[in-house]
Amino acid sequence: QVQLVESGGGLVQPGGSLRLSCAASGTSFSLNTMGWFRQAPGKQRELVATITSDGIINYGNSVKGRFTISRDNAQNTVYLQMNSLKPEDTAVYYCNAEVESIQGVTWPWGQGTQVTVSS
């Protein structure tokens, strides 16, 4: 079973930057689309950014021009560079991936990492 583990969250002032990482671990699997989603208190989970195995990228409207998603296929890791952070970016950020393995195609989630933007 493939597991996704996020890291890199924390407290940052408005205008600051953070870099999130999400590493996939397991045996005999391949990763297709990987992405980041976030959920603020009282709100639905929303798309932040996705990236396919070929490098095609999609961003949510609220983060375009400020966040950058990238991946290292050799390390089975996806990153999210977040710049010009705003208080409204405060949320739990979750990693998600389309995984192909002996179990078929699954879409596991990471445990989430808290990002708080506040002065």
Describe what you observe in this structure.
There is one protein chain. With 119 residues, the protein is mainly beta. Helix content is 0%, strand content 56%. The protein contains no helices and eleven strands. It has strands at 3-7, 10-12, 18-25, 29-39, 46-51, 57-59, 67-72, 77-82, 91-101, 104-106, 113-117. Strands 2, 4, 5, 6, 9, 10 and 11 form a seven-stranded mixed beta sheet that branches. Strand 9 (91-101) and strand 10 form a beta hairpin. The termini are far apart.
Structural descriptors:
119 residues, seven-stranded mixed β-sheet, mainly beta, four-stranded antiparallel β-sheet
Instruction: Give the N-to-C terminal Cα separation.
Output: 40 Å
Strand content: over 45%
Q: Stretches where pLDDT falls below 50 for ≥5 residues?
A: none
* Cα Rg: 14 Å
Shape: elongated
Helix-strand sequence: EEEEEEEEEEE
Helix content: under 10%
Number of helical segments?
Answer: 0
- Give the total of beta strands: 11
- Secondary-structure-based class equals mainly beta
- Report the mean per-residue pLDDT as an integer: 96
The biggest sheet, with number of strands, parallel, antiparallel or mixed sense and barrel status, is: 7 strands, mixed
